[in-house]
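Please discuss these two lines.
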Amino acid sequence: MLKSCLKCGRIHEHNYICNTITRVKADDSIAYKFRNTQAWRKKRKIVHDRDKGLCQVCISNLYDTYTRAYDNKLIEVHHIEPIVQTYELRLEEGNLISLCTYHHKMADRGEIPRKVLKDMIKD
């Protein structure tokens, strides 16, 4: 059985122990503070409901989709334009998309182009 790794975002066997070092986020960053607000929690739920709790890349069958993520616990809401670059877009639904952990990591690393993610929202 395969699972999405919370540390590296890749797909591993269920019993595999990943030794990837996770990135530590600064507690005083603007993005970190924003993610602890009630406004973000409400908007995240709206986007999650809009996307029906599904990874939009998985259902499009793109970017190394091995299995489709249907487990709502694995779905995260991703800012297409990062908060630190465009703070004013932090709550815009056109800048938010539901992704599984694997594709979220890929998007953060720039392996999934922002234009592709924006086009998925328009459909």
